Amino acid sequence: MNVRMCLWLGLGLVSMGAQAAPEIAQLYAPKLPEGSAWVRVVNPSDTAMQVRVGQGPSFALAASTALASPFQVVDSLQPLQVSINGREIKGLSAPKSAWVTLILDSDPARAPRLVIDPPLRGKDLRAELNVYNLANGCEKAEVKLANGAPVFNQLPFNGQAQRTINPVQATLIATCNENASLPMKLAPFRAGDRYSLFLIGSRQAPRLIGLVDQTAP
């Protein structure tokens, strides 16, 4: 996948200031046990689905309410246990030490698509920004600031891209061809955090949803 990403967010960002060392992100605090992985589930559909990973809690996921479950620890040496609407999905596995995102299909009987996210690389006063193009028919997605400065360019359908940024306040707009999403204001996040952007909907009506990634207690 050839994803061209801009190196800087450009104009229009307001720095939230340097954070003290104790305020490093929630994702940097937990330590994975040997032979484990992080797994979360994403439902880009507005139709709610009840999902459960392993022996963890069950989550009702839908794009209009809660798009993604928290990352939770799983044993990468064992088959991944995932149930959707009470039906167990077989044949999934999570690589050791990986950050895995499971993208649900609109048909709950189909196995989710497994995406292995890039390793965390944010350091100290920077944060991770990840984007996923899940908008049907959107072959090349763009994410820009409200003032037009590019953030991610030429992201293919089902593609994923990552960059590090300084903690900022900004409004983003995604486009598929000439069709633009509604403006989305980044939720507040801190140095060391990991932030996910999900482009959902369709090429004709793209929707951009963002959230600060969380880990299960």
UniProtKB/TrEMBL annotation:
Protein origin, superkingdom: Bacteria
**In the UniProt record, does the keyword Acyltransferase occur?**
no
Identify the main location: periplasm
* Keyword terms, alphabetized: Alginate biosynthesis, Periplasm, Signal, Transferase
Q: Where is the signal peptide?
A: 1-20
Tell me the Pfam families matching this sequence.
AlgF
* Gene Ontology molecular function, alphabetical: transferase activity
**Pathway listed for it?**
Glycan biosynthesis; alginate biosynthesis
Q: Which family does it belong to?
A: Belongs to the AlgF family.
What is this protein called in UniProt?
A: Alginate biosynthesis protein AlgF
Lineage at the top is: Bacteria, Pseudomonadati, Pseudomonadota, Gammaproteobacteria, Pseudomonadales
